[in-house]
Design goal:
The protein contains 3 helices and 4 strands. By secondary structure, the chain is mostly helical. A two-stranded antiparallel sheet has the order 1-2. The chain has a two-stranded antiparallel sheet with strand order 3-4. The longest helix is centred in the last third of the chain and has 39 residues.
Length: 138
């Protein structure tokens, strides 16, 4: 709701949730004036020329949309639904295990490469010398 300060006429957008309690005073952020929540403006009457459009006339023709057979509207048997969800769960579980295995292989491979090529690594990045010395590989 847009509220104007009665002292300095500064306008502020105040959320409706803060205006639920009518006894709560408001404070202007510019001049610091404390004032009560103003009464909401009365709703304006509808303009004189406004009218509601009439609905279109009813058509007596049969519907062009074919009706579904009663069997099509029935849900699938529970056994079919469970089978699909079990298969989907197993497939995602296999992919997750494969992703974890690939991550572990990459970490081990990176660690072995760093140990095997530690001389080149220590030459390129001197702080690595302290790391390998702490591990007893320096």
């Amino acid at each position: 709701m847009l509220i104007d300060c009665p002292n300095c006429a500064a306008g502020f957008q105040v959320p409706e949730r803060l205006l639920r309690d009518p006894m709560r005073p408001l404070r202007c952020g510019q001049c610091g004036t404390v004032f009560p929540i103003p009464e909401p403006p009365a709703s304006e009457p509808e303009p004189l020329g406004f009218h509601t459009p009439e609905p279109p006339p009813a058509v007596d023709e049969p519907s062009a949309i074919p009706m579904a057979a009663p069997d099509d509207t029935q849900p699938k048997p529970l056994a079919e639904q469970e089978t699909f969800s079990v298969i989907a769960h197993e497939a995602s579980s296999r992919r997750l295990r494969a992703a974890w295995a690939a991550s572990i292989v990459l970490l081990i491979g990176g660690g072995l490469a760093a140990i095997i090529r530690r001389d080149a690594l220590m030459e390129a990045w001197p702080p690595a010398t302290r790391l390998f010395a702490a591990l007893g590989l320096g």
